[in-house]
Design a protein that fits this description.
Length: 126
C-alpha cells in the first residue's frame, strides 16, 4: 500500500535508508573521509569530508579541511571551505573560518563565522 523511498549505494545494492555513520567524541582521524550515507561527527577530523547525504557536526567536533555535502547542520568548529548543495544550518555554538558556497543558508544568532559566502540556486552548486 505504501512505498518507501530507499537510498541505495550505486552498484552495491546496499540499503542505506536510516543508516548514519558516526565518529564519536574522543576520536581523531587524520585523512580524508568519503561517505555515501549520512554522517555525524563528534570527534576531530584533519582532512577533507565528502558526504553524498547529510553531515551533522556536533558541538564539540572540529574539522580542519574542506567539506562537500548535500545538507549540513554545524554546531562545532570548521576551518576550511564548505560546499553544501542544498541547506547549510549554522547553529549558535558554531565557529566557521573559510569560504562557503551554498544553495540555502540559515544562521542562528551567536554563531561565529569568518567567511566569504556565495549563495547559488540549489541546482547550480558545484
Amino acid at each position: 500500500m505504501f512505498e518507501k523511498s530507499i537510498k541505495k549505494a550505486k552498484g552495491t545494492g546496499l540499503d542505506l535508508l536510516g543508516q548514519t555513520n558516526r565518529i564519536v567524541e574522543g576520536t581523531t582521524i587524520k585523512g580524508n573521509i568519503e561517505a555515501i550515507a549520512d554522517i555525524r561527527i563528534d570527534g576531530v577530523i584533519e582532512g577533507n569530508v565528502e558526504v553524498k547525504g547529510r553531515l551533522v557536526l556536533g558541538p564539540i567536533a572540529r574539522i580542519k579541511g574542506d567539506i562537500r555535502c548535500e545538507n549540513s547542520e554545524i554546531e562545532g568548529e570548521i576551518e576550511g571551505n564548505i560546499v553544501v548543495n542544498d541547506l547549510l544550518t549554522v547553529k549558535s555554538t558554531a565557529k566557521i573560518k573559510g569560504d562557503i558556497k551554498v544553495g540555502r543558508l540559515a544562521v542562528e544568532p551567536g554563531a561565529k563565522i569568518d567567511v566569504k559566502c556565495q549563495m547559488v540556486g540549489c541546482d547550480t552548486v558545484s
